Amino acid sequence: MSIITAVETFDVRFPTSKHLDGSDAMNADPDYSAAYLRIITDAADGHEGHGFVFTIGRGNDVETAAINALKGHVIGRNTEELLDDMGATWRLFVHDSQLRWLGPEKGVMHMAIGAVVNALWDLKAKRAGLPLWQLLGRMTPEELVNLIDFRYLTDALTPEEALEIFRKAEPGRRQREEELLTVGYPAYTTTPGWLGYSDEKLARLCREAVKDGFQQIKLKVGGDLEDDRRRLKIARETVGPDIRIAVDANQRWDVAEAISWMKELAEFDVAWIEEPTSPDDVLGHAAISRGVAPIPVATGEHVQNRVIFKQMLQADALQVLQIDAARVAGVNENIAILLLAAKFNVPVCPHAGGVGLCEAVQHLSMFDFVAVSGTLERRMIEFVDHLHEHFITPIDVRQGRYWPPLAQGAGAEMHLASLQEFSYPGGPAWMPETVAIAG
Ligand SMILES: [Mg+2]
Protein backbone atom coordinates (compact mmCIF):
# COMPACT_ATOMS: atom_id res chain seq x y z
CA MET A 1 0.00 0.00 0.00
CA SER A 2 1.20 3.52 -0.72
CA ILE A 3 0.00 7.01 -0.02
CA ILE A 4 -0.03 10.06 -2.28
CA THR A 5 2.22 12.45 -0.42
CA ALA A 6 2.31 15.54 -2.66
CA VAL A 7 0.84 17.21 -5.71
CA GLU A 8 3.15 19.85 -7.17
CA THR A 9 1.95 22.37 -9.73
CA PHE A 10 3.94 24.38 -12.27
CA ASP A 11 2.95 27.40 -14.41
CA VAL A 12 5.00 26.71 -17.55
CA ARG A 13 4.89 29.05 -20.56
CA PHE A 14 6.79 29.05 -23.83
CA PRO A 15 7.21 32.43 -25.58
CA THR A 16 5.92 31.12 -28.94
CA SER A 17 4.15 34.39 -29.80
CA LYS A 18 7.50 35.88 -30.86
CA HIS A 19 7.48 33.85 -34.09
CA LEU A 20 3.70 33.75 -34.63
CA ASP A 21 3.75 29.96 -34.36
CA GLY A 22 0.18 28.94 -33.65
CA SER A 23 -1.37 32.16 -34.98
CA ASP A 24 -4.90 31.91 -36.37
CA ALA A 25 -7.98 34.03 -36.98
CA MET A 26 -8.91 34.22 -33.29
CA ASN A 27 -5.65 33.60 -31.46
CA ALA A 28 -3.21 36.15 -32.76
CA ASP A 29 -0.30 35.73 -30.35
CA PRO A 30 -0.38 32.50 -28.33
CA ASP A 31 2.30 31.62 -25.80
CA TYR A 32 1.91 27.85 -25.64
CA SER A 33 1.58 26.96 -21.97
CA ALA A 34 0.90 24.13 -19.59
CA ALA A 35 -0.68 24.24 -16.16
CA TYR A 36 1.27 21.21 -15.11
CA LEU A 37 1.19 18.85 -12.16
CA ARG A 38 3.13 15.99 -10.75
CA ILE A 39 1.73 13.48 -8.29
CA ILE A 40 4.21 11.97 -5.85
CA THR A 41 3.68 8.87 -3.67
CA ASP A 42 5.68 7.19 -0.94
CA ALA A 43 5.91 3.93 -2.95
CA ALA A 44 9.37 2.42 -3.30
CA ASP A 45 9.11 2.29 -7.12
CA GLY A 46 9.48 6.08 -7.27
CA HIS A 47 6.91 6.44 -10.08
CA GLU A 48 5.21 9.81 -10.42
CA GLY A 49 2.06 10.82 -12.30
CA HIS A 50 2.35 13.78 -14.67
CA GLY A 51 -0.44 15.70 -16.38
CA PHE A 52 -1.28 19.16 -17.69
CA VAL A 53 -3.88 21.53 -19.02
CA PHE A 54 -2.90 23.24 -22.25
CA THR A 55 -3.51 27.00 -22.40
CA ILE A 56 -2.14 29.76 -24.63
CA GLY A 57 -0.66 31.99 -21.95
CA ARG A 58 -2.64 34.31 -19.71
CA GLY A 59 -4.97 32.24 -17.56
CA ASN A 60 -2.40 29.52 -17.05
CA ASP A 61 -2.20 30.77 -13.44
CA VAL A 62 -5.98 30.41 -13.11
CA GLU A 63 -5.80 26.83 -14.38
CA THR A 64 -2.94 26.06 -11.98
CA ALA A 65 -5.09 27.36 -9.11
CA ALA A 66 -7.94 25.10 -10.28
CA ILE A 67 -5.63 22.08 -10.13
CA ASN A 68 -4.60 23.15 -6.64
CA ALA A 69 -8.28 23.20 -5.64
CA LEU A 70 -8.41 19.44 -6.30
CA LYS A 71 -5.43 18.53 -4.13
CA GLY A 72 -7.64 17.74 -1.16
CA HIS A 73 -9.12 14.79 -3.06
CA VAL A 74 -5.70 13.30 -3.71
CA ILE A 75 -3.10 14.07 -1.05
CA GLY A 76 -3.08 11.55 1.77
CA ARG A 77 -5.17 9.06 -0.21
CA ASN A 78 -4.38 5.40 -0.74
CA THR A 79 -2.80 5.29 -4.20
CA GLU A 80 -4.01 1.80 -5.10
CA GLU A 81 -7.56 2.62 -4.11
CA LEU A 82 -7.59 5.59 -6.50
CA LEU A 83 -5.85 3.75 -9.37
CA ASP A 84 -7.74 0.46 -9.10
CA ASP A 85 -11.13 2.03 -9.71
CA MET A 86 -10.53 4.95 -12.06
CA GLY A 87 -14.28 5.17 -12.76
CA ALA A 88 -14.97 5.94 -9.10
CA THR A 89 -11.94 8.26 -8.98
CA TRP A 90 -13.26 10.25 -11.95
CA ARG A 91 -16.64 10.66 -10.22
CA LEU A 92 -14.90 11.75 -7.02
CA PHE A 93 -13.60 14.85 -8.83
CA VAL A 94 -16.44 15.54 -11.26
CA HIS A 95 -19.19 15.04 -8.68
CA ASP A 96 -17.59 17.30 -6.04
CA SER A 97 -20.79 19.19 -5.33
CA GLN A 98 -19.17 22.53 -4.48
CA LEU A 99 -16.67 22.62 -7.36
CA ARG A 100 -19.37 21.33 -9.73
CA TRP A 101 -21.16 24.66 -9.28
CA LEU A 102 -18.40 26.31 -11.33
CA GLY A 103 -19.39 24.34 -14.46
CA PRO A 104 -21.09 22.01 -14.31
CA GLU A 105 -18.67 19.81 -16.23
CA LYS A 106 -17.18 22.55 -18.37
CA GLY A 107 -14.47 25.15 -18.45
CA VAL A 108 -11.59 25.84 -16.09
CA MET A 109 -12.53 23.37 -13.36
CA HIS A 110 -13.39 20.55 -15.76
CA MET A 111 -10.08 20.98 -17.59
CA ALA A 112 -8.21 20.93 -14.28
CA ILE A 113 -9.95 17.65 -13.42
CA GLY A 114 -8.77 16.36 -16.79
CA ALA A 115 -5.15 17.13 -15.86
CA VAL A 116 -5.41 15.33 -12.52
CA VAL A 117 -7.23 12.33 -14.02
CA ASN A 118 -4.63 12.09 -16.80
CA ALA A 119 -1.79 12.32 -14.26
CA LEU A 120 -3.31 9.39 -12.36
CA TRP A 121 -3.56 7.41 -15.62
CA ASP A 122 0.11 8.24 -16.25
CA LEU A 123 0.98 6.82 -12.83
CA LYS A 124 -1.19 3.74 -13.41
CA ALA A 125 0.44 3.06 -16.78
CA LYS A 126 3.94 3.48 -15.34
CA ARG A 127 3.12 1.04 -12.56
CA ALA A 128 1.88 -1.44 -15.17
CA GLY A 129 5.07 -0.90 -17.21
CA LEU A 130 2.99 -0.08 -20.30
CA PRO A 131 2.28 2.89 -22.54
CA LEU A 132 -1.24 4.14 -21.85
CA TRP A 133 -2.63 2.99 -25.23
CA GLN A 134 -1.59 -0.58 -24.47
CA LEU A 135 -2.78 -0.46 -20.86
CA LEU A 136 -6.24 0.63 -22.03
CA GLY A 137 -6.21 -1.72 -25.00
CA ARG A 138 -5.67 -4.70 -22.71
CA MET A 139 -8.42 -3.92 -20.20
CA THR A 140 -11.55 -6.07 -20.43
CA PRO A 141 -14.69 -4.61 -22.03
CA GLU A 142 -16.33 -4.67 -18.59
CA GLU A 143 -13.44 -2.76 -16.98
CA LEU A 144 -13.58 -0.17 -19.76
CA VAL A 145 -17.33 0.34 -19.42
CA ASN A 146 -16.85 0.90 -15.69
CA LEU A 147 -14.63 3.92 -16.43
CA ILE A 148 -17.51 5.85 -17.94
CA ASP A 149 -20.18 7.99 -16.36
CA PHE A 150 -23.26 7.34 -18.50
CA ARG A 151 -25.32 10.07 -16.87
CA TYR A 152 -26.68 12.33 -19.67
CA LEU A 153 -25.61 9.81 -22.35
CA THR A 154 -28.16 7.00 -22.28
CA ASP A 155 -30.50 8.54 -24.85
CA ALA A 156 -27.64 8.06 -27.32
CA LEU A 157 -25.44 5.38 -25.77
CA THR A 158 -26.25 2.87 -23.02
CA PRO A 159 -23.72 0.84 -21.00
CA GLU A 160 -24.98 -2.28 -22.81
CA GLU A 161 -24.27 -0.70 -26.21
CA ALA A 162 -20.83 0.40 -25.03
CA LEU A 163 -20.09 -3.15 -23.89
CA GLU A 164 -21.18 -4.43 -27.27
CA ILE A 165 -18.83 -2.01 -29.09
CA PHE A 166 -15.87 -3.13 -26.94
CA ARG A 167 -16.76 -6.82 -27.30
CA LYS A 168 -17.08 -6.56 -31.06
CA ALA A 169 -13.53 -5.13 -31.26
CA GLU A 170 -12.06 -7.58 -28.77
CA PRO A 171 -11.11 -10.51 -31.07
CA GLY A 172 -8.87 -8.36 -33.29
CA ARG A 173 -7.03 -6.44 -30.56
CA ARG A 174 -3.69 -8.28 -30.70
CA GLN A 175 -3.56 -8.19 -34.46
CA ARG A 176 -4.24 -4.44 -34.52
CA GLU A 177 -1.56 -3.80 -31.88
CA GLU A 178 0.86 -5.55 -34.21
CA GLU A 179 -0.44 -3.59 -37.18
CA LEU A 180 0.14 -0.28 -35.35
CA LEU A 181 3.71 -1.25 -34.58
CA THR A 182 4.26 -2.14 -38.24
CA VAL A 183 2.49 0.67 -40.10
CA GLY A 184 1.99 3.42 -37.50
CA TYR A 185 -1.03 5.72 -37.28
CA PRO A 186 -1.75 8.28 -40.06
CA ALA A 187 -0.92 11.93 -39.32
CA TYR A 188 -1.64 15.25 -40.98
CA THR A 189 0.28 18.47 -40.50
CA THR A 190 -0.78 22.01 -39.63
CA THR A 191 2.79 23.33 -39.66
CA PRO A 192 2.48 25.15 -43.04
CA GLY A 193 -0.84 26.83 -42.32
CA TRP A 194 -0.51 29.45 -39.58
CA LEU A 195 -1.99 32.82 -40.55
CA GLY A 196 1.08 34.81 -39.52
CA TYR A 197 3.39 33.14 -42.06
CA SER A 198 4.45 34.77 -45.34
CA ASP A 199 3.43 33.31 -48.74
CA GLU A 200 7.01 32.15 -49.28
CA LYS A 201 7.10 30.37 -45.94
CA LEU A 202 3.69 28.80 -46.66
CA ALA A 203 4.87 27.42 -50.03
CA ARG A 204 8.13 26.15 -48.57
CA LEU A 205 6.40 24.41 -45.66
CA CYS A 206 3.81 22.88 -48.06
CA ARG A 207 6.63 21.40 -50.17
CA GLU A 208 8.31 20.06 -47.05
CA ALA A 209 5.05 18.50 -45.81
CA VAL A 210 4.63 16.54 -49.04
CA LYS A 211 8.28 15.52 -49.00
CA ASP A 212 7.84 14.32 -45.41
CA GLY A 213 5.05 11.97 -46.50
CA PHE A 214 1.93 13.75 -45.23
CA GLN A 215 -1.26 13.06 -47.20
CA GLN A 216 -3.10 16.02 -45.65
CA ILE A 217 -2.19 19.56 -44.58
CA LYS A 218 -4.32 22.20 -42.88
CA LEU A 219 -4.53 25.96 -43.38
CA LYS A 220 -5.92 28.55 -41.02
CA VAL A 221 -8.64 30.71 -42.62
CA GLY A 222 -11.23 33.28 -41.66
CA GLY A 223 -9.16 36.44 -41.34
CA ASP A 224 -9.67 37.88 -44.83
CA LEU A 225 -11.41 36.15 -47.74
CA GLU A 226 -9.03 37.33 -50.48
CA ASP A 227 -6.02 36.30 -48.35
CA ASP A 228 -7.59 32.88 -47.82
CA ARG A 229 -8.16 32.40 -51.55
CA ARG A 230 -4.60 33.47 -52.37
CA ARG A 231 -3.06 31.21 -49.72
CA LEU A 232 -5.24 28.23 -50.68
CA LYS A 233 -4.28 28.73 -54.34
CA ILE A 234 -0.59 28.73 -53.39
CA ALA A 235 -1.05 25.63 -51.23
CA ARG A 236 -3.08 23.75 -53.86
CA GLU A 237 -0.61 24.58 -56.64
CA THR A 238 2.28 23.53 -54.41
CA VAL A 239 0.94 20.20 -53.14
CA GLY A 240 -0.93 19.15 -56.30
CA PRO A 241 -4.41 17.57 -56.58
CA ASP A 242 -3.80 14.41 -54.54
CA ILE A 243 -2.89 15.87 -51.15
CA ARG A 244 -5.92 16.79 -49.01
CA ILE A 245 -6.14 20.37 -47.71
CA ALA A 246 -8.33 21.01 -44.67
CA VAL A 247 -9.13 24.53 -43.44
CA ASP A 248 -9.69 25.80 -39.89
CA ALA A 249 -11.59 29.00 -39.01
CA ASN A 250 -11.08 28.76 -35.22
CA GLN A 251 -14.69 29.85 -34.45
CA ARG A 252 -14.45 33.04 -36.46
CA TRP A 253 -17.83 33.09 -38.24
CA ASP A 254 -21.55 33.34 -37.72
CA VAL A 255 -23.61 30.61 -39.37
CA ALA A 256 -24.54 32.37 -42.64
CA GLU A 257 -21.04 33.81 -43.00
CA ALA A 258 -19.50 30.35 -42.59
CA ILE A 259 -21.64 28.99 -45.40
CA SER A 260 -21.00 31.86 -47.82
CA TRP A 261 -17.25 32.03 -47.04
CA MET A 262 -16.86 28.29 -47.63
CA LYS A 263 -18.64 28.57 -50.99
CA GLU A 264 -15.77 30.87 -52.01
CA LEU A 265 -13.15 28.32 -50.92
CA ALA A 266 -14.84 25.16 -52.25
CA GLU A 267 -13.04 25.29 -55.63
CA PHE A 268 -9.76 24.43 -53.88
CA ASP A 269 -11.17 21.00 -52.95
CA VAL A 270 -11.32 21.39 -49.17
CA ALA A 271 -11.04 18.23 -47.03
CA TRP A 272 -12.98 19.70 -44.08
CA ILE A 273 -13.92 23.00 -42.49
CA GLU A 274 -12.88 23.03 -38.84
CA GLU A 275 -14.48 25.10 -36.06
CA PRO A 276 -16.54 27.34 -38.35
CA THR A 277 -18.42 28.90 -35.42
CA SER A 278 -18.95 28.77 -31.64
CA PRO A 279 -18.15 25.32 -30.24
CA ASP A 280 -21.33 25.52 -28.13
CA ASP A 281 -23.61 26.06 -31.12
CA VAL A 282 -24.95 22.59 -31.94
CA LEU A 283 -27.76 23.75 -34.21
CA GLY A 284 -25.46 26.27 -35.89
CA HIS A 285 -23.01 23.50 -36.77
CA ALA A 286 -25.91 21.41 -38.08
CA ALA A 287 -27.02 24.30 -40.33
CA ILE A 288 -23.46 24.83 -41.56
CA SER A 289 -23.11 21.09 -42.24
CA ARG A 290 -26.19 21.23 -44.47
CA GLY A 291 -25.05 24.47 -46.08
CA VAL A 292 -21.50 23.44 -47.03
CA ALA A 293 -22.13 19.75 -47.87
CA PRO A 294 -20.40 17.73 -49.20
CA ILE A 295 -17.52 19.44 -47.35
CA PRO A 296 -17.44 17.82 -43.88
CA VAL A 297 -17.58 19.97 -40.73
CA ALA A 298 -14.95 19.13 -38.11
CA THR A 299 -14.97 20.29 -34.51
CA GLY A 300 -14.18 19.29 -30.95
CA GLU A 301 -11.01 20.92 -29.61
CA HIS A 302 -13.18 23.38 -27.67
CA VAL A 303 -16.20 21.13 -27.16
CA GLN A 304 -16.47 21.19 -23.42
CA ASN A 305 -17.81 17.76 -22.56
CA ARG A 306 -19.39 14.50 -23.73
CA VAL A 307 -22.90 16.00 -23.57
CA ILE A 308 -22.21 18.55 -26.32
CA PHE A 309 -20.48 15.87 -28.41
CA LYS A 310 -23.56 13.70 -28.00
CA GLN A 311 -25.82 16.46 -29.30
CA MET A 312 -23.44 17.27 -32.18
CA LEU A 313 -23.65 13.64 -33.27
CA GLN A 314 -27.40 13.39 -32.77
CA ALA A 315 -27.93 16.53 -34.87
CA ASP A 316 -25.44 15.52 -37.62
CA ALA A 317 -23.63 18.75 -36.77
CA LEU A 318 -20.14 17.33 -37.31
CA GLN A 319 -18.78 14.75 -39.73
CA VAL A 320 -15.25 14.65 -38.28
CA LEU A 321 -14.92 14.49 -34.48
CA GLN A 322 -11.86 16.10 -32.93
CA ILE A 323 -11.10 14.99 -29.39
CA ASP A 324 -8.50 16.88 -27.37
CA ALA A 325 -6.49 15.25 -24.58
CA ALA A 326 -6.67 18.30 -22.30
CA ARG A 327 -10.11 19.89 -22.86
CA VAL A 328 -12.56 17.47 -21.23
CA ALA A 329 -12.16 15.61 -17.93
CA GLY A 330 -9.36 13.33 -19.02
CA VAL A 331 -9.00 9.80 -20.37
CA ASN A 332 -12.34 8.55 -19.00
CA GLU A 333 -14.47 11.18 -20.69
CA ASN A 334 -12.51 10.86 -23.93
CA ILE A 335 -13.25 7.13 -23.97
CA ALA A 336 -16.96 7.99 -23.66
CA ILE A 337 -16.55 10.34 -26.64
CA LEU A 338 -14.71 7.68 -28.67
CA LEU A 339 -17.63 5.32 -27.99
CA LEU A 340 -20.16 7.93 -29.09
CA ALA A 341 -18.19 8.46 -32.31
CA ALA A 342 -18.12 4.70 -32.91
CA LYS A 343 -21.85 4.43 -32.28
CA PHE A 344 -22.58 7.18 -34.82
CA ASN A 345 -19.90 5.92 -37.23
CA VAL A 346 -18.06 9.25 -37.33
CA PRO A 347 -14.26 9.28 -37.75
CA VAL A 348 -12.13 10.71 -34.92
CA CYS A 349 -9.24 12.96 -36.00
CA PRO A 350 -7.81 14.41 -32.76
CA HIS A 351 -6.77 17.99 -32.23
CA ALA A 352 -3.11 18.23 -31.25
CA GLY A 353 -0.20 20.64 -31.39
CA GLY A 354 0.21 23.25 -28.68
CA VAL A 355 2.54 21.82 -26.09
CA GLY A 356 2.20 18.15 -25.24
CA LEU A 357 -1.12 17.57 -26.96
CA CYS A 358 0.45 15.34 -29.65
CA GLU A 359 2.27 13.32 -26.99
CA ALA A 360 -0.93 12.80 -25.01
CA VAL A 361 -3.65 12.29 -27.61
CA GLN A 362 -1.84 9.71 -29.74
CA HIS A 363 -2.52 7.19 -26.94
CA LEU A 364 -6.27 7.72 -27.30
CA SER A 365 -6.30 7.29 -31.08
CA MET A 366 -4.19 4.16 -30.85
CA PHE A 367 -6.48 2.76 -28.16
CA ASP A 368 -9.46 3.62 -30.38
CA PHE A 369 -7.96 1.62 -33.23
CA VAL A 370 -7.08 -1.35 -31.02
CA ALA A 371 -10.21 -1.60 -28.87
CA VAL A 372 -13.04 0.69 -30.04
CA SER A 373 -13.51 1.53 -33.73
CA GLY A 374 -10.99 -1.04 -34.99
CA THR A 375 -10.26 1.01 -38.09
CA LEU A 376 -7.81 3.63 -39.46
CA GLU A 377 -10.21 4.54 -42.25
CA ARG A 378 -10.68 8.35 -42.62
CA ARG A 379 -8.74 8.79 -39.34
CA MET A 380 -5.55 10.75 -38.65
CA ILE A 381 -3.92 12.63 -35.79
CA GLU A 382 -2.93 16.28 -36.14
CA PHE A 383 0.80 16.92 -36.06
CA VAL A 384 2.53 20.21 -35.35
CA ASP A 385 6.29 20.32 -35.00
CA HIS A 386 6.65 22.47 -31.88
CA LEU A 387 8.15 21.93 -28.42
CA HIS A 388 8.44 18.13 -28.51
CA GLU A 389 12.01 18.32 -27.23
CA HIS A 390 10.71 19.20 -23.76
CA PHE A 391 9.13 15.76 -23.26
CA ILE A 392 10.73 12.65 -21.81
CA THR A 393 8.98 10.60 -24.52
CA PRO A 394 8.55 12.91 -27.50
CA ILE A 395 6.32 11.78 -30.37
CA ASP A 396 7.92 9.83 -33.17
CA VAL A 397 6.42 11.10 -36.44
CA ARG A 398 8.02 9.88 -39.65
CA GLN A 399 6.72 9.15 -43.18
CA GLY A 400 3.56 11.07 -42.34
CA ARG A 401 2.67 8.72 -39.50
CA TYR A 402 2.78 8.54 -35.72
CA TRP A 403 4.82 5.55 -34.54
CA PRO A 404 3.43 4.05 -31.31
CA PRO A 405 5.17 5.09 -28.09
CA LEU A 406 6.56 2.09 -26.23
CA ALA A 407 7.71 3.86 -23.06
CA GLN A 408 5.53 3.36 -19.99
CA GLY A 409 3.13 6.14 -19.09
CA ALA A 410 0.73 8.55 -20.74
CA GLY A 411 3.30 10.73 -22.52
CA ALA A 412 2.77 13.97 -20.61
CA GLU A 413 5.98 14.07 -18.60
CA MET A 414 8.30 17.00 -19.31
CA HIS A 415 11.97 17.28 -18.47
CA LEU A 416 12.48 18.94 -15.11
CA ALA A 417 14.94 21.37 -16.74
CA SER A 418 12.16 22.55 -19.11
CA LEU A 419 9.70 22.99 -16.25
CA GLN A 420 12.26 25.18 -14.50
CA GLU A 421 13.53 27.18 -17.48
CA PHE A 422 10.05 28.09 -18.74
CA SER A 423 8.47 28.58 -15.33
CA TYR A 424 6.38 31.78 -15.39
CA PRO A 425 7.17 34.49 -14.46
CA GLY A 426 10.42 33.63 -12.65
CA GLY A 427 12.13 31.14 -15.01
CA PRO A 428 15.25 32.11 -16.99
CA ALA A 429 13.29 32.11 -20.29
CA TRP A 430 11.11 34.95 -18.95
CA MET A 431 13.85 37.15 -17.51
CA PRO A 432 13.62 40.59 -19.21
CA GLU A 433 17.08 40.39 -20.78
CA THR A 434 16.38 36.90 -22.25
CA VAL A 435 13.07 37.98 -23.75
CA ALA A 436 14.60 41.17 -25.19
CA ILE A 437 17.57 39.41 -26.78
CA ALA A 438 15.46 36.61 -28.21
CA GLY A 439 12.84 39.04 -29.59
MG1 LIG B 1 -8.21 23.80 -34.86
Low-confidence stretches: none
Q: What would you call the shape?
A: globular
How many strands, which pairing sense, and closed or not: the largest β-sheet?
9 strands, mixed
User: Architecture of the largest domain, CATH level 2?
Assistant: Alpha-Beta Barrel
CATH fold name of the largest domain: TIM Barrel
What is the CA-based Rg, rounded? Answer: 21 Å
Order of helices and strands: EEEHHHHHHHHHEHEHEHEHEHEHHEEEHH
Strand content: 5-15%
CATH level 1 class label of the largest domain: Alpha Beta
- Cα end-to-end separation: 51 Å
* Unique bound compounds: magnesium ion
Work out the count of structural domains.
2
Fraction of residues in H or I helices = 40-55%
Question: What's the number of extended β-strand segments?
Answer: 12
Oligomeric grouping of the chains: single chain
Mean pLDDT level: 96
Q: What is the CATH homology-level superfamily of the largest domain?
A: Enolase-like C-terminal domain
Number of helices: 18
- Name the structural class: alpha/beta
Features:
single chain; 439 residues; alpha/beta; Enolase-like, domain 1; TIM Barrel; 2 domains; 9-stranded mixed beta sheet; 3-stranded antiparallel beta sheet; 12 strands; 42% helix; 14% strand; globular; binds magnesium ion
Task: Outline the structure in words.
The protein folds into 2 domains: about 140 residues, Enolase-like, N-terminal domain (Enolase-like, domain 1, 2-Layer Sandwich); about 250 residues, Enolase-like C-terminal domain (TIM Barrel, Alpha-Beta Barrel). The chain is an alpha/beta fold. The termini are far apart. It is about 40% helix and about 15% strand. The radius of gyration is 21 Å and the shape is globular. Helix 14 packs parallel to helix 15. Bound molecules: magnesium ion. Magnesium ion (MG) binds next to loops.
